[in-house]
Specification:
It is a single chain. The chain is α+β, with helices and mostly antiparallel strands. It has one domain (2-132). The chain is 44% helix and 21% strand. It is built from five helices and four strands, in the order αααββααββ. Strands 1-2-3-4 form a four-stranded antiparallel sheet, with no helix packed on it. The protein starts with a helix and ends with a strand.
Length: 134
């Protein structure tokens, strides 16, 4: 009975530790549609895709400017595929895949970018500037 309990505890521990790289893949942000930043797109559409801006202000011409900072995520199918791959690789390598999978997920993470969107007087995208981390 004692061996059964030990084996059960090991199994539970293994599955609780299974594939941190899979969890990292799943927890990445969703991919945002950057096509909404095309000139002429209404502000409401941009906000529906990106969420509320980090900051809103008026520029020297009195036009509204929204600022967002985020890391581009992966499409849901890509996230699921990566998570399944990491999970299967962990199981087939007796959890040694973590040594490669976790750093790989960190390296594949996209850089933080800041999007500065200026709207015209009709609240439609007029100009977009993208600032990337150097």
């Amino acid at each position: 009975m004692r061996k059964f309990i030990s084996a059960g505890m090991m199994l539970i521990l293994s599955f609780s530790l299974v594939s941190c790289s899979a969890m990292m893949a799943v927890k990445k942000p969703d991919k945002k549609d950057l096509n909404v930043l095309a000139v002429g797109t209404p502000r409401d559409i941009v906000i529906s895709e990106f969420g509320l801006p980090d900051k809103t202000e008026k520029n020297s011409q009195g036009l509204r400017v929204d600022i967002w900072s985020f890391k581009q995520g992966d499409a849901k199918g890509v996230k699921a595929g990566k998570a399944i791959f990491h999970l299967v690789a962990d199981i087939f390598t007796c959890f040694l895949w973590k040594i490669i999978g976790m750093p790989a997920e960190v390296l594949l993470e996209k850089d933080l970018k800041t999007y500065i969107v200026t709207y015209d007087s009709s609240d439609r995208v007029y100009e977009v500037k993208v600032l990337a981390k150097k």
